[in-house]
Amino acid sequence: MIVGVGSWRGSGATTVAYALAAALAAQGHRPWLVEADPAGGVLAARLPDGAVIAGGLEHVAFPDTRTDPAARLAEAAGDVGGMRVVGAPGDAFRAWACHAPRQPWAPALRDLDGPVVVDVGRLRGASPVGAVLAQCDVLVLVTDSDATSIVSTEDWATALGRVAPVDSPMPLDVTRVVVVDTPHAIDRVGRADADAELGDRLAGWLPWEPDAVRSLYDGVPVTDRRFRRSALVQAALHLADRLTAGLGVRAAEDAA
């Protein structure tokens, strides 16, 4: 299973990708989290010192040797709470360059063992992440709970990313939407209204819990007792359940 996580309107793709990967780890998987945002990565700064190699994806996209790309991903990954995390360069120019490498790495995502979550950041015209999306089984679009954001995200997904007739469609037509219930939404809608608008495309509704997010980035595992009452963690676990069930993924111990 390869899940791309990005946004058309709004932000929070990196946090949703991280929470999803953490939930998969808590469910017995050994997931990968690849930060492939062309705007530059943030995981190396948010996670504990040394947890992730800063610009790890750069070592994969522009290798010094002819090592297999999947092996290079493994070499660049840091272990964070049972997740294998590959961070992107923080500089936008270098991060963008990773998507046009001399030796394409995106197909190697298919060679990784376990589910893969890829943070592709903001999806805009001329974004270079098409090769990554072509490897994904599903694209999760993150939006806030503003009515305009939800409707425009649905329209963008239905149009396969085309905002003008001359635009090329996304190479992936399986999209789901996750709504982050941000309190600063101008025209905030409730979950029932979002469900009515998005229907089966709605994959999850994540509450706004900054303290839980900080704990996740501090490396606290989802199974920790302090998360027992966290609505964010429960929502992330539910999202992981929906995606793995829909794509027929089993936990590592079940597959053995």
For the termini, the CA-CA separation is 17 Å
The CATH topology is Rossmann fold
Question: From the coordinates shown, what is the CATH architecture?
Answer: 3-Layer(aba) Sandwich
Number of strands: 8
Provide a count of the helices.
11
Whole-number total of structural domains: 1
Order of helices and strands: EHEHHHEEHEHEHEHEHHH
C-alpha Rg (nearest Å): 17 Å
Q: Helix share of residues?
A: 25-40%
Proportion of beta-strand residues = 15-25%
* Shape type: globular
The structural class is alpha/beta
CATH homologous superfamily (4th level) name: P-loop containing nucleotide triphosphate hydrolases
Strand order of the largest sheet: 3-4-2-5-1-6-7-8
Q: Please outline the major beta sheet.
A: 8 strands, mixed
For the record, the CATH class is Alpha Beta
Low-confidence stretches: 252-256
Mean pLDDT: 88
Descriptive notes:
The chain is of the alpha/beta class and 256 residues long. It has a single domain (2-255), classed as Rossmann fold, CATH 3.40.50. Helices cover 35% and strands 16% of the residues. It contains eleven helices and eight strands. It has helices spanning 13-26, 43-46, 56-61, 69-76, 92-97, 130-133, 147-158, 191-198, 210-217, 231-246, 252-255, and strands at 2-7, 32-35, 78-80, 83-86, 116-122, 138-144, 175-180, 202-206. Residues 252-256 have low confidence and may be disordered.
